[in-house]
Design goal:
The structure is a single chain. With 563 residues, this protein is of the alpha+beta class. It contains 18 helices and 19 strands. The strands form 4 sheets. Strands 1-18-17-13-12-9-8 form a 7-stranded antiparallel β-sheet. Helix 2 packs parallel to helix 5. The relative contact order is 0.19.
């Protein structure tokens, strides 16, 4: 049965010396690799793969959502970033929602049209190519493989078919007259069934012909606004026309000789950096992988970091965010004093750093020149709102659920504001030389920074190769408002005696999480330059950066490939 999703095989890491691509769908990986072979660079290939994933995983991603990008320039050894998230409609406000009966106690339904923020992905794809692309291929050439695949059709993969079926009811809602465009005779496609999306092909053709204007003005924009208005939204054509991608300076922390890079708020990347700061002074390696001691301190550090990010992480263009203070070593030392090695704490709240004293796809590409693109694209929940603009072949995101409806919260909804965002790409570089060590990411809502930390520590502390690092069983912690406790989920593969010890320390544990429920722990992709994580190397400076090592998560349908 598909629900079993047994991990019954092993996979070796992919090794190559040229270009390398890792995604959650082999067809998307292959398209990215073809772009590299045609002279494109990592940024070109990332956009091509993202477009293919829009076709092959429409419940996770697409031009109806947002994307974020980190780009490593091998010549300058600089890491740059793009924030491709959209903003709240200018006519939507807390007061309007209150008049309609929505507030903190009675929030918006997750598929309500008011949860649609301006889709930022299309603009970010164009800007990624403009800012970081090779200039050897046009946008039309980069999108053409996905256009052809959408017209010809593709056979649906196993996990993809399961997730499509899980959320297909969203597409059948009475107010979603075009949801059938993403179904076959009213049903989710089966494993192995060929699915075609000629409407998405036309959307990509319009984007190829006219660039950003082809999406944010004209037929597509009008279809988006018409659909949203008919479902109660106040989004306007001006909201779409005025959308802009933001080029941002990535943030980082240093962990034992490695610089770990994330994007700043409104994304939750600071959660991963704060967690690493809290763990840096501990002898994590001596605790042993997925032991009770290791998982206990990891989970306690994550609780502290999540508590801070859920309060402070918002749109810095609208509300000041103390990002540098939050990721400072001094702040982490103050916060780490709250951690007990013997008991779980359920009372963590956000700290005061200024005092003195989340469905998605992730992909990564490294080209033959050593440039890297860490790229993530999402419509948030399965199929987002499920709303499909007429003749467009994609659904609209529901990122607006990331806003707070409490007027006193820094992340409260307001016109033109970007919501708290779960999606985040990551990179690691040598702290001294600036050489690229890894481009990686893990999808899965609030699991994402937790996955970043676990995959990185699997390599850096426990010497795992990239494929083993994404294979290894994971934990996930979240706060339940309903029950007033932090809940800890442990994947099948973590020992039962470890689980019992964590319960004895006061953790509320659910174990083992198996089968298709493993999606809770996300799906990761990773490419490393050389084997810097290997015990054969006495220091990071000894690694051989010529060989690319790559891994793709067994919790997804994808693979890594290189040449």
């Amino acid at each position: 049965m598909a629900s079993e999703l047994e991990f019954i095989s092993r996979r070796s890491p992919i090794l190559c010396t040229g270009g390398c691509v890792a995604t959650s769908q082999p067809l998307a990986t292959n398209i990215g690799l073809d772009i590299l072979k045609r002279g494109g660079n990592a940024a070109d290939a990332a956009v091509a793969a993202a477009a293919a994933l829009n076709l092959t995983e429409p419940f996770s991603t697409g031009v109806g959502g947002d994307c974020f990008c980190l780009f490593y320039d091998a010549k300058t050894k600089q890491v740059s970033g793009i924030n491709g998230s959209g903003r709240c409609p200018t006519k939507l406000s807390i007061d309007l929602l209150k008049q309609q009966g929505f507030d903190e106690a009675n929030p918006l339904p997750q598929q309500h049209a008011h949860t649609v923020t301006v889709p930022g992905a299309a603009a970010a794809w164009c800007d990624t190519i403009t800012l970081f692309g090779s200039k050897k291929l046009t946008l039309a050439e980069i999108l053409q493989p996905s256009i052809e695949l959408a017209e010809k059709g593709f056979p649906v993969s196993e996990i993809t078919a399961y997730l499509w079926k899980q959320d297909w009811a969203t597409l059948q809602a009475a107010n979603n007259q075009h949801g059938a465009e993403l179904l076959i005779e009213g049903e989710a496609p089966r494993h192995g069934q060929v699915f075609r999306n000629p409407f998405l092909a036309e959307t990509f053709k319009e984007l190829s012909k006219s660039g950003k204007k082809g999406f944010y003005e004209g037929r597509i924009a009008e279809a988006i606004v018409q659909l949203l208005k008919s479902n109660g939204s106040v989004m306007t054509l001006e909201d779409l026309k005025n959308h802009k991608t933001e080029q941002v300076q990535p943030i980082f922390t240093t962990y034992k000789g490695v610089k770990v890079w994330e994007l700043p708020p409104n994304g939750q990347g600071l959660t991963a950096l704060m967690t690493l700061n809290l763990l840096e002074d501990l002898n994590v390696k001596a605790m042993h992988h997925n032991s009770a001691d290791y998982l206990h301190v990891l989970v306690e550090a994550l609780k502290l970091s999540v508590s801070d990010s859920m309060w402070y992480c918002t749109d810095p263009a609208c509300v000041p965010v103390p990002t540098q203070e939050l990721i400072s070593k001094d702040y982490s030392k103050r916060r780490s004093a709250l951690v007990s090695m013997h008991r779980a704490n359920n009372e963590y709240g956000h700290g005061s750093p200024l005092q003195t004293g989340s469905d998605t796809v992730y992909l990564t590409v490294v080209d033959a020149q050593g440039n890297a693109c860490s790229f993530i694209n999402s419509i948030y929940k399965g199929f987002g709102t499920g709303l499909v603009p007429s003749g467009c072949g994609f659904t609209l995101q529901n990122r607006g659920v990331g806003f707070s409806l409490s007027p006193s919260h820094p992340n409260c909804l307001s016109p033109g504001k970007r919501p708290f965002h779960t999606i985040l790409p990551a990179m690691a570089t040598h702290a001294d030389t600036g050489e690229l060590l890894s481009s990686f990411g893990v999808v899965g809502g609030f699991m994402q920074p937790q996955g970043h930390v676990q995959v990185l520590l699997n390599m850096l502390e426990f010497g795992m190769n990239p494929q083993r690092a994404v294979d290894a069983a994971r934990c996930y912690v979240e706060y339940s408002k309903k029950d007033g406790v932090w809940k800890l989920f442990l994947e099948d593969g973590i020992a039962e005696d470890v689980t019992e010890e964590l319960r004895a320390r006061g953790h509320t544990v659910q174990w083992p999480v198996t089968g298709q429920e493993r999606k809770l722990f996300g799906r990761g992709q990773i490419i490393t330059m050389g084997d810097w994580w290997s015990s054969r190397n006495t220091s990071l400076s000894d690694y051989n950066g010529i060989v690319r090592w790559a891994g793709s998560d067994p919790r997804g349908d994808g693979c890594a490939m290189g040449y």
